[in-house]
């Protein structure tokens, strides 16, 4: 009888340990999938210029744009083929030989041009709206 109780206790202990141990998987967890759809648009916050400038080469130089876009907080508008940042009012469109960036900023023209020229961005244009925001577009030819 004592041996029988020992076996039962050992079995119960094994079951308890197995239930408490997380299952392991030989595969790494999947990268978060890129959000995509026809109604995707930009976020509402203004992007810090240093961060906005870093998005262009990061997203435009990669062979895996969807993974990079997802990691950076972008989603893809499937109707336009444009990546929209989900926090910032900013978008990037990849083309075969270049990328274009569009963002909203309240910074001065000189400051915007200074940050984006480091990328290096070309054809930087600013349009000032009646609300005082600057609508900025730039082309990154290093794609």
What labels would you give this structure?
single chain; 143 residues; alpha+beta; seven-stranded mixed β-sheet; 7 strands; 34% helix; globular
In a nutshell, what does this entry contain?
By secondary structure, the chain is an alpha+beta fold.
Describe this structure in words.
- The chain has four helices and seven strands; from the N terminus they run αβααββββαββ.
- The chain has 143 residues and is of the alpha+beta class.
- It has a seven-stranded mixed sheet.
- Strand 2 and strand 3 (82-85) form a beta hairpin.
- The longest helix is centred in the first third of the chain and has 19 residues, at 2-20.
Task: Annotate the secondary structure layout.
Layout: H1 2-20, E1 36-37, H2 49-60, H3 65-72, E2 74-77, E3 82-85, E4 90-94, E5 99-105, H4 109-117, E6 122-128, E7 134-140
Parallel strand pairs: 1-2
Antiparallel strand pairs: 2-3, 3-4, 4-5, 5-7, 6-7
Helix pairs in contact: 2-3, 2-4
Q: Which descriptor suits the 3D outline?
A: globular
Low-confidence stretches: 2-29
Helix residue percentage: 25-40%
SSE-based structural type: alpha+beta
Number of strands: 7
Tell me the series of helices and strands, N- to C-terminal: HEHHEEEEHEE
What is Rg? 25 Å
Cα distance, first to last residue?
Answer: 77 Å
């Amino acid at each position: 009888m004592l041996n029988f109780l020992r076996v039962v206790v050992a079995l119960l202990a094994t079951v308890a340990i197995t239930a408490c141990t997380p299952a392991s998987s030989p595969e790494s967890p999947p990268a978060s999938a890129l959000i995509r759809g026809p109604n995707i648009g930009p976020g509402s916050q203004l992007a810090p210029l240093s961060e906005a400038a870093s998005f262009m080469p990061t997203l435009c130089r990669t062979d895996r744009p969807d993974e990079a876009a997802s990691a950076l907080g972008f989603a893809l508008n499937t109707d336009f083929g444009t990546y929209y940042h989900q926090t910032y009012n900013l978008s990037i469109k990849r083309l075969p030989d270049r990328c274009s960036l569009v963002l909203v900023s309240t910074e001065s023209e000189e400051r915007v041009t200074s940050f984006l020229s480091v990328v290096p961005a070309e054809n930087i244009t600013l349009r000032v709206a009646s609300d005082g925001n600057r609508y900025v577009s730039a082309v990154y030819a290093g794609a």
